[in-house]
Specification:
By secondary structure, the protein is mainly alpha-helical. The chain has helices spanning about 5-30, 35-55, 60-80, 80-85, 90-95, 105-130. It has one domain.
Length: about 130
């Protein structure tokens, strides 16, 4: 297996694990910290991992681009895009696009992107030394 294939596999495994954790949080956690904040932090890490599955080049600004995308989704929530598109009556779209704008969510997205960037940078440095 090539280095790129191994890397893709690791990102796929991590993305799958995070996805399962997100589902568990959505279905079974009803608190005032993990669900509202942990889920938002994890979702941007999940997005970064998914992008890395398909993008084998090491985009230095990946975490920044994912953060910008997440903020755009949050702005879409502020603008009530789900209802503007006529999809507000469909729970799937209300869940995927979201309906509640929050500055705290943007902060959580930033934290998640920083976590991804720091871990990926550290792993890359360790791999270079080995």
């Amino acid at each position: 297996m090539t280095k790129k294939a191994k890397s893709r596999l690791w990102y796929a495994v991590i993305a799958f694990i995070i996805f399962v954790v997100e589902i568990i949080i959505a279905l079974y956690v009803d608190d005032k910290f993990i669900r509202p904040f942990g889920g938002d932090i994890l979702v941007v890490i999940l997005l970064c991992c998914i992008v890395r599955i398909f993008c084998t080049r090491k985009p230095k600004a990946l975490a920044l681009w994912v953060f910008i995308f997440a903020v755009a989704v949050e702005v879409a929530q502020y603008l009530d895009v789900v209802n503007l598109l006529g999809l507000g009556h469909i729970q799937f779209f209300r869940t995927i696009i979201g309906t509640d704008f929050s500055f705290i969510d943007i902060l959580c997205y930033a934290v998640g992107c920083v976590i991804f960037f720091v871990i990926e940078t550290a792993v890359r440095k360790i791999k270079r030394k080995v």
